[in-house]
């Protein structure tokens, strides 16, 4: 194929496909149909003399040529935004940021952080998908992934967000019916509330179960909030994130000097994705929220939402 000057419209179409990972979603955002989007991408590839997209699991991924084209599309979109913006107002960010995160992180970190980003930048929409899994090798339909444990990824950056701990908890009623364990050997007389071992996809979380081999299961679930509620209902001793359990006055920490497992939250994204202003704003707020949460936990201020009283921005 011989290269020629690419169409600006085609570059903007590719930019939207790169953000969404799907022709249909890009078409919906742009007010086109997916056939038109496909035709625009084909025209761009003819103009550039090579492929800009390759099919991957869950959507489309950019080729090296595609990443160069998207960088040009981002620059073009920025110039168009400046042209139409109010000259007396500050730069406005308009974008959709799509991210996945574990249940607890999505609820207590990502959601309030996203709300603050939207308050500061009303043109930014953040979509959050709850998922407890390893980082995917193909993330064309996601801008950001938050996972537990340091990930091994290709063609992406991994950023450490912070640490949290797992501890053992039970209710006073449960402990009134059964003697509280004081040694690991005594844990054998109790049942554990935790993840379903056969369905656990995260190696770091499996360490929690392997650390308590003497305990049999009582209630297991893929959802950490189910662990909390089953423990609060007296279903056994829960191995729970301390920042979740500390929010409930009816949960008592057991053997804190013996059982405390540190876990790490990591963020995964492509380098070109991190350069987008909206994504950069979300990442900055996630880091700020995690820092506030860590400070609140160390100071014992655990009942309010992390950072809830801080202003937007």
Write a compact overview of the structure shown:
By secondary structure, the protein is α/β, with parallel strands linked by helices.
Could you describe the 3D structure shown?
This protein is α/β, with parallel strands linked by helices. It has 3 domains: 8-84, Arc Repressor Mutant, subunit A (Orthogonal Bundle), CATH 1.10.10; 95-160 and 264-299, Periplasmic binding protein-like II (D-Maltodextrin-Binding Protein, domain 2, 3-Layer(aba) Sandwich), CATH 3.40.190; 163-263, 3-Layer(aba) Sandwich (D-Maltodextrin-Binding Protein, domain 2). Helices cover 41% and strands 21% of the residues. The protein is built from 11 helices and 11 strands. The protein has helices spanning 8-20, 23-30, 34-48, 64-84, 103-120, 172-177, 203-210, 224-232, 242-245, 271-274, 277-299, and strands at 53-56, 59-62, 95-101, 124-130, 144-148, 157-170, 191-194, 216-220, 237-241, 252-254, 261-269. The strands form 2 sheets. Strands 3, 4, 5, 6, 7, 8, 9, 10 and 11 form a 9-stranded mixed β-sheet that branches. It has a two-stranded antiparallel sheet with strand order 1-2. Helix 7 links the parallel strand 7 (191-194) and strand 8. The longest helix is centred in the last third of the chain and has 23 residues, at 277-299. Mean pLDDT is 83; it is low at 298-313.
